[in-house]
Amino acid sequence: MATFELKGAPYIPAPTRVQGVMLQVLLALVPGVMAHIWFFGWGIVVQISIAIVFALTFEATMLHLRGKDVRLYLTDLSAVVTAVLFCLCVPQLMPWWVTATGMFFAIVVAKHLYGGLGYNLFNPAMVGWMVVLIAFPRDLTAWLPPLELAEYHFTLFESATIIFTGNIPGELVWDDITQATPLDTLKIQTALAMTIAEIHEDAIFGDFGGLGWEWIANWYAVGGLFLLYRRIISWHIPVAFFGAVMLVDLPFYLMDPDGYLGPLQQVFTGSVVLGAFFIATDPVTASSTPRGRLVYAAGIGVITLIIRRWGAYPDGVGFAVLLMNMAVPLIDYYTRPTIYGHSR
Question: Which of 97, 136, 280, 296 is geometrically suited to a Cys-Cys bond with 287, CB 3.0 to 4.6 A?
């Protein structure tokens, strides 16, 4: 008979460390980043490298000014996660100074001016993304087509040269190497009274979303399932986010399939999958109660659809997350679980 060594009480679980959590989030993002490289080239690698350097620089500076242990907080990888998430939401060849600006607002303004990690009201990566989206709209629309459709393929060195100097090899101009994203195309062409079926004849579209983008979303989902398996995130936010997007979109799609994307197309187009698993689940800025997480994520899904359909921007995940971040204290207040032995 097998015997087991017994230990006495108290049975205390191992502490969860910020660095360990952030490392697992970064590992979960690797499949999506690799897919991004496969479909769109090396620009994302340069962007991530630039963002990490500026994020750590701003982090170290603010920690020093605030009298905090720089080495302790700098190695928790939270700034690195912010940098990577920011880069996954912006164009691959965006100028380096725009990336630096995004990191300044993400790390300095959204994080440290609110008190640092654990005290920030807004998701830092989304603050950085929304600031540069509003401030530099032209640079934020310079998206590359998938390599399958691209006439020009840039090496790692060429990508870095474009990002740092703005000079495109040869006599090319930006209009030669960039094109509208699937969501941009949908917004523009539906405004011209084209049907969804007609729009989807464009080679930029795949089966459920944009060509390449739907596969990237699949790999984000794989990473998200890994986080669920490791219990880094709970099921409430992804399920409520996806559920709200699909359930709210479904009646509109059934009434007018020529004018609305189907539920699965809404999920696999844009930043919904990335947002559901990696952005909305931020433990600091998301709701902390089980029922509150459902309300919080459902609100993000509904606002995302509203912005996509009637807003000025093609995707609404970033704005939706920030708007629901503001509602989190109220949501948590009204969704607190009943304490055992006490009436509500």
Answer: 296
